[in-house]
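Thread: quick sanity check before group meeting

JM: Hey all, I'm pulling together slides for Thursday and realized we never actually wrote out the predicted structure for the chain we discussed last week. Dropping the sequence here so it's in one place. If anyone has concerns about the input, flag it before I start.
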Amino acid sequence: MGKNFDKTTFDERDFRSFSQRLNEQLILLKKILARPDFGVGPMTLGAEFEMYITDREGIISPINKKILNKLDTSRFQLELNQFNLEYNVTPTLAAGASFSTLHREMKQALADANNAAGAYDSRLVPIGILPTLHQEHLQSAYMTDIPRFHCLSNSLHKLRGKAFEVNINGRDSLHLTSSDVTLEGANTSFQIHLRTEPDKFADTFNTIQLITPLVVAMAANSPLLLGRRLWQETRIALFKQSIDSRRRNSVAWRQPARVTFGHGWVRNDAWELFAETARLFPPIFPVLCEEDSKKLYQQGKLPGLEELCLHMGTTWPWNRAIYSASDGGHLRIEMRALPAGPSLIDMTANAALYIGLAIGLRDRINDILPAMPFRFAEYNFYRAAQNGLEARILWPEEKQHHPVERPITKVIEALLPVMQEGLNQIRVEKTLIQQMFTILRDRLNARMTGARWQLEMFEKYKKHLGTEEACQAMLKNYIQEQGRDRPVTEWSAAS
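JM (edit): ok, ran it. Output follows.
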């Protein structure tokens, strides 16, 4: 959830003061993380899911402010483009019926949003990229008119010094340019938050980095953009390129991107990820908050470290460390690589796969990493986004003597029992574990993701319709199936 503010212009003094606070708060964070009682508490999970707003024909409906006026604004939030909305799921204990609770709340939120949108003959659609988007929908006229988004667009454009460029190659290819960041708004995501013990943060974070390609391949749901068949999870390429603020060829060394898979395995603790962000990326929102962090800390209270947290939110690693002073203070890992859709029960199973694998593999991660240079994990991530369940990835085997590429499906198949072990470790209800396992096993056996379903239906309609009409027909079918909230393996087939 991004922080809102009113100011949109800043001077050098603002930037200097903001940078000074970042330095002060990094020192405070190190001290806070060293407290033996910091972050002690039960494991919890939460989520954010983003949705498109469309009319009855599946064409975007730019009315997010109108719908938000009818909803609980403590949970629903505006998104970058006027045809997107976000819902923030209430954090819940990871043990017990956590995934049922997550699924139930998302279902209620979608129903509430649809009721509100109904007044405008519109509805909400969780989908990675809306197939019926037109290029004119990705222009500044459709940006949500609030200072934060204007400031974001202006700041990144100023850093880059020229238009943003998108080049994606798949079965078709796409080249776009834009003077603002509205291309990024074509992505809608499902972001999972996991409260993590500080002393296990590094192992948990590294494990999540390692398994992210597997979950992305299983969850892929964004194969079409502007009528082009691109990557199975096109969001990954589109997000990175659409807000890439780097100036190409301005220096001989490779500049770090604000959208990134990461810069290496975490060595010790969460602090290094905060320090890395503060040291590698210039501030773009130098908004000074009222809180005096140093004074609060000296009084024995937990400061919010608001400037540091704001700055962390101006880079977009696919997995992100989060500090929070709430609930006695804690750390979370935000898993940001998954798309919205295809169904809410599929999204719930994706969350279970992520968390179950993270916990199930965590205790073994330091035995695995010597055979897994970080660049291999990054390679796996982009291959999974590009090819989904058809990808071949580098995956370490016990007693191996050299890296070997394997079908990603074989790796996932071997690890599904590990997911069950992980969910058992955190005491998720056994019937729920079995339900999630069954959904994922069936998806894997059928090789049927949301992306594959979309492409097969698109090809079916394309036999007798133009590209635009085929996208529209496929989307209508998608919305109908999504409304039944069954796993994508049970959706009607293209043939």
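AS: nice. Residues 353 and 419 are 6 Å apart (CA to CA). The longest strand covers residues 44-55.
JM: adding both to the slides.
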